[in-house]
Amino acid sequence: MDRDKSFRNKKVKSAVARVLTFALILLLVLPVAQCWAVVVFPKGSDKPIMGFLVSQDGTRVVVREPQPDGTTRDHLLLRSDVDDILFTVSIERLETLRPDDPRQYRNYAEELAEKRQDPEARAAAIRLYLIAAYLDPANLGRSSMLGMIDLARSEAEEAKFRAMAYLLDPDHDRRVLKPPSPIQTTRAAADDSARSQLLQALRHLRQGNKLAARRIAQLPAVQSQFDEFQQVISFKEFDDACKSAAELPLDILHKILLVELSMTSKSAADTGAEHTTVSTSWQQSLARDDRTPLPVLSLETISEFDPRKCQYRAGEWIGP
How far apart are the two ends of the chain, measured CA to CA in Å? Predict the structure, then answer.
């Protein structure tokens, strides 16, 4: 009896080993594109690992990190050694988006824009902004395109986004056609955390989340940030707008956008990124006297993403 039980146990262990080996082979050959982009924070380290989640269970996490030379490096971490895992793009969140509620696309794009250092989050934010603009151009078109400007991956792309923001603006404000001039500050910039919170408060107010905007702005470190932009908008103006039950006035909206663009443009400049692509200014094109046709510009062709494919199902963007 004991001999038969031992034999059965050996067979079970052998079968399990074969299954595990097969699963490991599948794991090693699984294309990175099918994995989720994540940021993993190991305990005791201030350097997060940004890559793709290959697998995770109750005891370990495997992350595949792209290398500068085009190769990848796999990190196997014990679950007990991981402080936190942030999914840069949530598949479940994408699947809940519906064409009959275009504002949800814009709201998630705003969240992903905060993670712009991750290429996948940046691309997803551009796509979601674009879909929101396509589904509701009258109400979300201009604001979505303004959000896309800061996510542009080249000067040529930025010029197209600015031109489309101009076309979707009922007032056709030409100032959007060129990058904003740096705002002269009256004091040294505070720490990055407070600046990030101020940017978040500005976006909350612009989206109509007045309670959240005021709660963040009331923090002493964030409130002091308004001194830097007092020539554009004061803390009192911001706070009054948060407390008001009325719709956000256009002049306050313009001030918020101006500070937003200034802060994000300055952040991009601080990274030392160099642009090598030279593009023709759309403002110059609109002002010229000749009758040469301008390049065709539409929401369907402004990027590699097709906004008509606005539903995410089974890992693909499809039409409604």
Answer: 62
Residue partners of 208: CB distance under 8 A and separation at least 6? 248
* Bridge-based pairing state of the strands 49-56 and 60-66: antiparallel
Burial class (CB within 10 angstroms; exposed 0-12, middle 13-18, buried 19+) of 316: exposed
Angle between helix axes 142-149 and 155-168 (nearest 10 degrees) is 160
Q: Could you report the per-residue pLDDT of 89-104, keeping only the tens digit for each?
A: 888 889 999 999 999 9
pLDDT tens digits, 248-301? 887 788 788 778 777 765 554 444 444 333 333 434 444 444 444 445 578 988
List, in sequence order, the alpha helices (H) in the chain.
2-29, 91-96, 102-113, 119-135, 142-149, 155-168, 192-206, 210-217, 220-223, 235-243, 250-270, 282-287
CB-CB contact of 319 with 213 (8 Å):
no
Residue 54 tokens, joined: 């290959």
If we measure between CA atoms, which residue out of 210, 209, 50, 53 comes closest to residue 116?
A: 50
Among 86-100, 188-202, 215-229, the minimum mean pLDDT is found in 188-202
Tally the residues of the chain.
320
The answer to whether residues 85 and 290 touch, using CB atoms and an 8 Å cutoff, is: no
CA dihedral 312, 317, 318, 320 (to 10 degrees): 50
**Residue 290 burial (10 A CB sphere; 0-12, 13-18, 19+):** exposed
Query: Which residues, in sequence order, are CB contacts of 97 under 8 Å at separation 6+?
Result: 104, 105, 108, 128, 310, 311, 312
199 and 190 in contact (C-beta within 8 Å)? Answer: no
Sheet with 49-56, side-by-side order of all strands: 72-78, 60-66, 49-56, 36-42, 82-87
How far apart, in whole angstroms, are the C-alpha atoms of residue 86 and residue 111?
13
CA–CA separation, 225 and 131 (whole Å): 33
Is pTM beyond 0.70 here? no
